[in-house]
Amino acid sequence: MRIKVLFNYRSIRRVLLILLLLYSGVIRSYGYEIFYPAEKNSVTTYDYGLFIGKARNSEAVTINSSRVYSAPNGAFAYSVKLNDGENRVVIRSGYSTKVYNVYKKKAVQKVQSEVNEFDKRTVIVKNDNVPLRSAPEDIGFNIVSYLFKGTRVVINGSKDNYYRVFLAKDKIAWILKSDIDEEAAVNDSIAEFINMNSQKYKNATVQTVSFTQNLPYTIEDGEKEILFRVYNPELSESSVYTINILKPKRYFYNVTLQDGFYTFKVSEVPKTFEDCTILVDAGHGGSQSGAMGCLGDKEKDINLKIALELQQILKQKGANVVMTRECDGEITLKDRIKIAVANDVDIYLSIHMNSIGNVGFNHSKHRGTGIYYFNKNSKELSQILEKSITKSAGTKKNGVRSASFAVIRPANYVGVLIETAYMINPSDTLLYTQGSFAKNVAEGIIDGLEEFIEK
């Protein structure tokens, strides 16, 4: 039995034309894609709204009627200055229009409070690693030491969330009220000095000083030496014990305390990879994605690629390598520091990709590799790495700066945070999306480490 099929070519052409128009409509309705912000309605306290995304098929994109530059791969970024209250941001291309509503909250003026004075009293620090600050505000640069659990401190005033700590007649500091155990019983006896000792080793100087109780201390990293001071304000207003240790060219230091016995150690950075323990920290991870890129890339993924490349080359060099993560796992800042301290690392390398905060995006300024350090002992490595990474990876120099990032604050190691490139810069996307980028960055870091360690 034969079945005869009749084709109506006119009808088929009509159907094909309709399908083509529908397909074209789908393509045309997506002339661009916005990856940030994720929501069309948002609330912020920022002065600028950042919009990043990808234009498709070289579409011309405008934001509030201003033409936006797109890289050859379609990546674009643009900042809108926000007014207090409602802000309407219109994004257009030849094929699509999207409207974003951003509500900017009015900045709240903080009222300056006065210091509440009261008579001196002795209290106990209830946690380890408690910042002692030069001013009553949470700024990393004002930290003068990290106190140990059980330390006796004398307080004689308060301001907002801080107690004022009396150290000596010409020296005060500040500590968070939440770091003080208000209920702890304080021993009535005054701490007494026991002894002091110094030992020199091949690559380190160790100074010990002991008291009958735990006392507060400060550290000052001077031009040629490091000053370690212990205060006993209950004994007298001038009871200060000072230790001076000459520092080597490349160094780090750490302090331990056990039952009033302080150990202050200044170490020299090892001069070979084989003698060096290097921690490689891939920033972010897990639910902490980090910055979002113009093409929808996640910072955590690029950080990990670079870190794994670096791990491999460092092992080939003979270094002892410690990783904070080797997969897409989540790890806190405190745990990253704990890993470094537990492994007695000499150098801490934190790998990141950059973005911007509450500023307007500038294509030429917010571009390239930036290196950050906190302690003086890490400045030289930062300067070396900026040169070596930009040379190897082809990125622009974005500067060497001091910054208060948690993982590079400890002086137990030489610590730097490397912002390899800007996730939000269209020109940088052309670099970091290349398959060789992670390896090029890793090789640049190795070149810098060789100069710092071996030369």
Layout of SSEs?
Elements: H1 9-28, E1 32-36, E2 41-44, E3 48-55, E4 61-63, E5 66-68, E6 75-81, E7 85-92, E8 97-104, E9 116-125, E10 130-133, E11 143-147, E12 152-159, E13 162-168, E14 171-176, E15 180-181, E16 193-200, E17 204-211, E18 217-221, E19 225-231, E20 240-246, E21 251-258, E22 261-268, E23 277-282, H2 299-317, E24 320-323, H3 333-342, E25 347-354, E26 369-373, H4 379-393, E27 397-402, E28 414-422, H5 426-432, H6 437-454
Parallel strand pairs: 2-8, 23-24, 23-25, 25-28, 26-27
Antiparallel strand pairs: 1-3, 3-6, 4-5, 4-7, 7-8, 9-12, 9-15, 10-11, 12-13, 13-14, 16-17, 17-22, 18-19, 19-20, 21-22, 26-28
Please provide a written account of the structure.
The protein is an alpha+beta fold. It has 6 helices and 28 strands. It has 4 domains: 29-104, Immunoglobulin-like (Sandwich); 116-181, SH3 type barrels (Roll); 193-268, Immunoglobulin-like; 273-454, 3-Layer(aba) Sandwich (Aminopeptidase), CATH 3.40.630.40. Helix 4 packs antiparallel against helix 6 (437-454). The termini are far apart.
**Could you tell me how far the N terminus lies from the C terminus, measured between alpha carbons in angstroms?**
91 Å
Overall tally of structural domains:
4
- SS field, number of helical segments: 6
Largest sheet: 6 strands, mixed
Low-confidence blocks of residues:
1-7, 18-29
Mean pLDDT: 92
* Binned strand content: 35-45%
Quote the CATH topology of the largest domain: Aminopeptidase
For the CA atoms, what is the radius of gyration? 29 Å
Q: Identify the overall geometry.
A: globular
Q: Structural class per helix/strand content?
A: alpha+beta
> In terms of quaternary structure, what is this?
single chain
What is the CATH architecture assignment of the largest domain?
3-Layer(aba) Sandwich
CATH level-four homologous superfamily name of the largest domain: Zn-dependent exopeptidases
Proportion in helices: 10-25%
